[in-house]
Specification:
single chain, about 290 residues, alpha+beta, D-amino Acid Aminotransferase, Chain A, domain 1, nine-stranded mixed beta sheet, 15 strands, about 25% helix, globular
Length: about 290
């Protein structure tokens, strides 16, 4: 696979489709220094982006949480996504929209005079966790914790919030794991580095209450699917010592889709019937 900065194709950038290798920013871009950036990850299936509009709406929300406004409407962002896909000839692809404070008159913490930029790229991407999608991912337990909402805008999909995720995932991969599970600032189970987490016990589903981390669109979709199937879902605070009593586990996210988990630290889980059913049901839904 070619480097992400050296490929053929088109990227939508600030209102125009540009050649992939020309979609560049200046080294004094504010977001590069101060993380003033928000983004969305989306998947296009059979020519249709799943929950595309909700992603674009959340992009605007995330920007507002970082105190900037994207100068393109949700409708314009939606149009740009499909223009990018068409220019590259893709009907099945991952879509990445990113908005940031660019280079301008300010180069300190304050950046009110700098322009807000927007780019939409995409690429063809298979399973985020590789063959773990079938046999169950192995997760480490991260030393880094999701921050308090009083510390950071935890409900925004903001680039800066992923710094500890990258560090936790690198540490997990060094141990032969696919990812890491993170606790929140209070010590409750929170999520993986880029995906929400679900557990099964006695036929009921338990998932951490999304009160200090991103309430993922895939998470919301899966909760709705489970309730449609008359399966009880508990959104609640989950303590680490409860891991021993859970029978099944899976991750959800746009990139992860629904991925079963076979192990977290020293705890093992069955890739059971409910996990497989919800994964298959989600696959049917996004391709409907």
């Amino acid at each position: 696979m070619a480097s992400y900065d050296d490929r053929d194709g088109k990227i939508w950038m600030d209102g125009a489709l540009v050649d992939w290798r020309e979609a560049n920013v200046h080294v004094l871009t504010h977001a590069l220094h101060y993380a003033s950036s928000v983004f969305e990850g989306e998947r296009c299936y059979n020519g249709k982006i799943f929950k595309g509009r909700q992603h674009s709406e959340r992009l605007h929300f995330s920007a507002s949480q970082l105190d900037f406004e994207i100068p393109w409407t949700v409708d314009q962002i939606e149009e740009a996504k499909y223009a990018m896909l068409a220019a590259n000839g893709w009907t099945d692809a991952y879509v990445r929209a990113v908005a940031w404070r660019g280079a301008g008159e300010d180069m300190g913490v304050s950046s009110r005079r700098n322009p807000v930029r927007l780019a939409i790229a995409g690429w063809e991407w298979g399973n985020y966790y590789g063959d773990a999608k079938m046999k169950g991912a192995k997760l480490d337990i991260a030393k880094w914790k999701r921050p308090s909402p009083e510390t950071a805008p935890s409900h925004a999909k903001a680039a800066g919030l992923y710094m500890i995720c990258t560090m936790a995932k690198h540490a997990a991969e060094a141990k032969g794991c696919s990812d890491a599970m993170m606790f929140d600032y209070r010590g409750y189970i929170a999520e993986a580095t880029g995906a929400n987490i679900f557990f099964v016990k006695n036929g009921e589903v338990h998932t951490p209450l999304a009160d200090c981390f991103l309430n993922g669109l895939t998470r919301q979709t899966v909760i709705g699917m489970l309730r449609d199937k008359q399966i009880t879902v508990h959104e609640r605070h989950i303590m680490p010592d409860e891991l021993e009593g859970f029978e099944q586990c899976w991750l959800t996210g746009t990139a992860a889709e629904v991925t079963p988990v076979g192990q977290i630290g020293n705890y093992n889980f069955e890739v059971g019937a409910l996990t497989r059913d919800i994964a298959e049901s989600y696959e049917r839904l996004v391709r409907a």
